[in-house]
Amino acid sequence: GNGDCPASKEGSCPNAYSSHLYWIGMAGSQDAGVRQRAKEAQLRQAVVEEWATNASKMNNLYNYGSFPPQALSTLWGEWTPCPDPSRPETRFGISLLGKTIEGTALTYAVPCYSDLRAIERSVFYPGLMSPEQFDEYRLEFWFDDRPFVRESAVFSILTTVFVCIVLCAAAMLFYNDVNQLVLYPVEEMISKVQAIRDNPLKAVGMAEKAYA
Questions:
Q1: By C-alpha distance, which of 117, 101, 121, 118 is closest to 109?
Q2: Does the predicted model carry a pTM greater than 0.85?
Q3: Distance CA 126, CA 77 (A)
Q4: Residue 10, exposed/middle/buried by CB under 10 A (0-12, 13-18, 19+)?
Q5: Scanning 23, 97, 130, 170, which has its CA 20 to 30 A from the CA of 190?
Q6: Residue of 141, 140, 138 lying closest to 37 (CA atoms)
Q7: pLDDT tens sequence across 16-70
C-alpha cells in the first residue's frame, strides 16, 4: 500500500503521504476480553484478497494502491502478542512491517509498534466509547511517521545552515563597518600621535593637510 500509483490513475496515493498505518491490534486491561476480541477481529483470506483486488482498481482522489503478497498474507494472519513495558496492558495485533521484503524499501522489520521510537509513531483509537469501555478493550491503529520525521530533520538542517550563513554574512558586514568607523580612525590617530612624539614639527604639516 505504499507503492507508486499506476500512470493511468489520477489523484493521490499512499506514497504522497508522510505517515502510514503499520500496526493494527486490540488492547486493554482485561486479558481474556482482549484475547477473545482479537480472535474475532482476525480477517479471512477471501475478504482480504477481494479488498486488495478492488483497491488495485481504484481511480479516485485517493487510491489505496497495491499490496505486496507478503503484506496480504500478514493481513489475514494470526494476531500475535505485542508487549510494551511502558504500557502494562494486553495487546494482540498484526504488523505490516513485521518482516523485511526483498526488493522494497522495507529493510528494517518492525514486528511490534513499540519497535519504533516514540517520535516515529502515532496512535489513533475509536473515540465513541466510554472510559470504562476504553480501558477494557479497544482497537489501536499505529502509524509509521518516519518519512515525516526524516523530512522534518532535513528542513531543520537546512534551517540551521541558512541561519549560519545569515549570521556569517552579518558578522562580515559588521566587521567591515567596525573597521571603517572605529578601527581605521583609531589606528590613524595613533600613528599621528607617534609621529608628533618623534617630531613635534610634523603637527604643523598635519594641520595644514587637514584644513587645506
A1: 101
A2: no
A3: 23
A4: exposed
A5: 170
A6: 138
A7: 788 888 999 999 998 898 999 999 988 888 998 898 888 878 777 777 777 777 7
